[in-house]
Structure formats: structure tokens, C-alpha cells
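[step 3/7] fold_predict: job queued, chain A
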Amino acid sequence: MTSKEIVRRRTQLAEMMGPGTIAIVPAASERLRNRDVHYPFRQDSDFFYLTGFPEPDAVAVIAPGRKQGEYVLFCRDRDPEKEVWDGYRAGPEGACRDYGADDAFPIEDIDDILPSMLERTERVYYTMGTHGSFDQRLIGWLNRLRQQARAGVHIPWELVSLEHLLHEMRLFKGRAELSLMRKAGKLAARTHRQAMQRCRPGMFEYELAAEYTYEFAKQGCEHAYPPIVGAGGNGCVLHYIENSSQMKDGELVLVDAGAELNHYASDITRTFPVGGRFSDVQRAVYEIVLAAQQAAIDAVVPGCNWNQPHEAAVQVLCQGLVDLGVLKAPVEQVIESQAYRRYYMHRTGHWLGMDVHDVGDYKVGDQWRALEPGMVLTVEPGLYLRASDDLDPKWHNIGIRIEDDVLVTRNGPEVLTRDAPKSIVEIESVMAR
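[step 4/7] structure written:
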């Protein structure tokens, strides 16, 4: 992401906030995995969106109209001894030189500097509940100012959730963002194709998962979320991440794996036969899910509301379940009673961007939000036929989900992950090579 684009974002946010305001955005902190070993660090999405700054334990402040500069960054100071162990730090000088801060200070000085900045504001934009320890620090600063009110100290009169403005901005992807998301989608789609070619009966699920890890890393990406590789009945577990079972000939394997590239995610699910060919029963269920996905994608157009793709998918899935004899009632009754939820219990998609389940309102007031160009969402219907006494055994343990990433454009839906094989003919052809 270019520095020019990040400056544009901060400028847009400052204009939306208006004079007499201040926005405070903490970075992510490193988290212990066990003992003195940390989880791999991943920057907070809101913070990175506005700063491009990659280090932990920092705080960005945007103060429209501030004479010394509107963008202030508090960050870790340079420390040659710690840098020997943990790597380079930008420090306040680097924050200004390399990351566009108008002013930068050591994070240790924040208790002295930030409260004085709060004094001169009417409204504070900050999202409570995301950074618990920082919430308490901010409340402490505000309470301290309140105690000095009789001495003439001005205190902010309103605390407003920053996400109301910032997440609305993030919902609409710009050209640079879409370029990254197209690339992430293409790289992940290519990996799904390669994994289909390498899949064999007798492999363990974790072996197939390792193919994605290797290919993503080789292409400069990482997993956007823990991959789901579920064969047979494991494919009916929506968030199955054990990936520990041996895959058998005759089973389907459901793989939900997306790549993250420079903080932007792709999210793809494909379901394919471990042995390379669908059985007649598997084929019948798969074609229903594929048709449901296409009906939902067709509804991803400006003017449709958020719920219409889901409604389109449900209609096709319910008709299919009735046609198969899995559900024995008129389609309208199946939909009204939600009897289908035994086999399709989730919604058909979510926003996608810097976060896999990205930010943005799904409703405006009590109405589903209208889709607009620049929004990106997933479309992922599925059917999960768990083994049960009242289900014909021929359907047992068939779990199928098909998921793509779709951009809303003025000219209709653009499927960013279209290179991942999903028709039965293409999947079987790819796996035969």
C-alpha cells in the first residue's frame, strides 16, 4: 500500500471528524503463546489501515487542525540492545521519516503528552472494548481531566466510537486494495488447484493442509485464518481445524483456505473427491450447492440488498433437498419453518477485506444494506448431511461448501477467486492429471 493512499485515508477521516476532535487508534500488542514464546505478530487492521506502521505497542492520534501536524504517532524508542535480539525498530525519527508521522514520541511519554492533547478537544473518537488495557488508560486520563475542571481545565464532552466512521471507510475498497485482493485471490485459487492435483487416498488431512502452507509461503503470503481440511464426516463440522484424520477413497474433502497478502485476505472453500471422482450421490448434492452459489452470485449487484444472495441460495438449496427426498415437505414450508437449517445452518457470506470477517454494517437501521460498487463479500452456501438414524445412509457424511470472493461492480459481480476449479468436470479433470 503506498504512503500516498494511507495519507488519503487519514485526510478523509479527519474531514469526516471535523474540527475540535481527536481520534485515538492503538496498535496490536505481542501476545504470549507459552512461557516466553510469542504468537506471530499481526498488526491491528484499523491501525494499519491508517498508518502502515508494522510495529507493536504503538498509538496513532489524528487531530484535525493541529498546528504542529494532524498525525501523531507514539511508538517504541530505538534500543540497540533489544534490536540485536528482536530486530529493527523505527523509533520516533523513523516514524516521521519512513511512515509519514507529523510528530512522533516514545510510547513511554504518552501519559504526559496525550492527556494535554485531550484538553483541547470537544469530541474523542475511540472504539471501546477492543483494547481492554488501553480502555482503562483512556478512562483514567479523562477522569483526571474531569477532576481538574474547577481549575478551568477543558474536558471533552463526548466519546464517540471511531468504528462508525472508520469501518464505513474500510467497507469500500479502493483501487490499491482491490489490486491486492485480486492477487491474493488468484494466488489462493492457484494453490487450491495444485492441492487437488496432489490429493491422494491415504494422505492425512494435515498433509493436504501443508500443501497450502508451503505454497502460500512460497508466494509471499500467509494463511488468512487456520485452514479447514475435513474429509468425510469432518467436512460436516463447520470450523473443523484438527486436520488429523486419514483421507479415504470414496470420501469428499472440504478445504477452506485463503491467503493473506499484505494484510488483505482471500477466502476460498472447495470440496472435491479424495480419489478424484465424485460418486453419483455426491454429484447430486454437489450440483445443488453449486447451483445455489451461482444463484447467490447473480444477486451480488448494486441495488440488491445484503440478504438477497442468501435468500437466493436458500431457495435453491431447499428445492434440492426436497428433490432428493431428504426433506419431505413443500419448498415454501421448508423455508418458512427453517427445516433446512438442520443441513444448512450458516449464512451465505460476509464482508471481506483486511479481516476475513471484515468490518461494515449489514443493516442500516432495521433494513438490510443495499450492495454498492466497491464492496467485497464472500458467497459460500453449503450442505452438511451428518450421519443420523433418520437420514438415508447413502447421504451420510456428505459435507459440501463452495466459497468465492465477489466484488460488487456497476457491471455485475466480479468473482476474484474464479481460477479455483469448482465445476465437477473441471475438478475431475484437474485431479486426473
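[step 5/7] annotate
The chain is about 35% helix and 20% strand.
The chain has a mean pLDDT of 95.
exit 0
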